[in-house]
Amino acid sequence: MTESRTPTVAAMGRVAVLAGGGSAERPISLKSGGECLRALQALGVAAEHFDPAERPLAELAGFDRAFIALHGRGGEDGVIQGALEALGVPYTGSGVLGSAIGMDKLRSKLVWKGLGLSTPEHRVPASAEALPEVIDALGLPLFVKPVREGSSLGTTRVDDAAALRTAWEAARRYDAEVLVEPCVVGEEYTVAVLDGEALPAIRIEAEGRFYDFEAKYQSEATRMVIPCGLAASEEAALGELALAAFDAIGASGWGRVDVMRDGAGRFWLLEVNTIPGMTDHSLVPAAARARGLDMAALVWRILLTSRRPGEG
Length: 312
What we know:
The protein is α+β, with helices and mostly antiparallel strands. It contains ten helices and twelve strands. The strands form three sheets. Strands 7, 8, 9, 10, 11 and 12 form a six-stranded antiparallel beta sheet that branches. Strands 2-1-3 form a three-stranded parallel beta sheet, covered by helices on one side. A three-stranded antiparallel beta sheet has the order 5-4-6.
């Protein structure tokens, strides 16, 4: 929930920019946090780097609010949000519930299905012996993903039955639960959400087989197409779907919704990122620029969404 009054920079007080942590996404989090820290300091905010992997969480009680740039487990899954709630420190982004569901691809899909929002069918095979049944049910090609991981870590596209077990085992290195869903053949889009507003959609064109970790953070060949090429009515419908998906899981503040569009023009929800990347290769800053917001304006808007403990 955005604060009712627009505070001055001084009123923000001492701000901890949380980055790093102990998840598999630590290197990206440090980059995101560094970009956010520099932008906040350029605005005159009394912002400081805070790495929960290197400092006791109790020290956060000395800050007036927290800007969370932690990706993955411990930062994006409701854990740090719960700690900040207990300490009474306002923080950016989704609360405990929205963060926990957003990090969990399976539970997000179950919520969307319950509300009639379109998302691909899925299976969660508990053993290697169940994999042939998955192919029988879903066909090929498939995507195999850890249920609770980000940045496409542990995610594999499978085009033939022989590769499914290897992909399943690779995903299990990140999570005991593995999600398998059909590969939606078509165009990939992402919609950034900022304080209840859908920013301009981006069409993603990756050089590889899909928008994987390298395409997200390393490749110079990945294209972020803005305007995305959709008709105005289609982009509006995509924005409405993204906001509905974001709200459905209890997310708030800011984030990003990833969607595929099939050959028939239907949109399919993939996942929500409640703390997306904020590096120079990241999608949310690109969408914000298309709306006329530079990095400083973007982080300021995010900071203004700081939620007070107990807001749900």
